[in-house]
Known about the structure:
Layout: H1 7-11, E1 24-26, E2 41-43, H2 45-57, H3 73-76, H4 83-100, E3 104-114, E4 119-128, E5 134-142
Antiparallel strand pairs: 1-2, 3-4, 4-5
Amino acid sequence: MARTQTRSDLSGGTGIRARQSLYSDFDLTFIANPNNKDITIKKDIAAIKQSVKNLILTHKGERPFQPYLGSTVNALLFELADVWTALDIQDEIRYTLENFEPRIQVIDVIVTDNIDANRMKVTIIFRIVSIGQQDQVDFYLERVK
């Protein structure tokens, strides 16, 4: 049976409150929220997934005053597409996330090359440290001139 909250329940100071978000970030697609016409906010797991992907795709030296933030994955994409390059990309992703994303613990990084399409599929399996929940991020790395 569900409990409904009445006005008298709130007067005692022990009202039911919604859980606060652990993490929040604005959506990098910059899609406007249809209700208030403001930028959409990503919360908790969605914010962490966006941060992981953004961190991997950021070039080292790209952010002002943070010259070491980012990865060299984009430079590795122009190497010969073989097993060794995929291993180098795995190592670079793991190193970047372990050093710059303290909210997660990396469990596995899987890089699958798709030579015919000139891209590599990246799957990052991680555990969120604060809540212990496991999740993953999937995206493609493509060569861009």
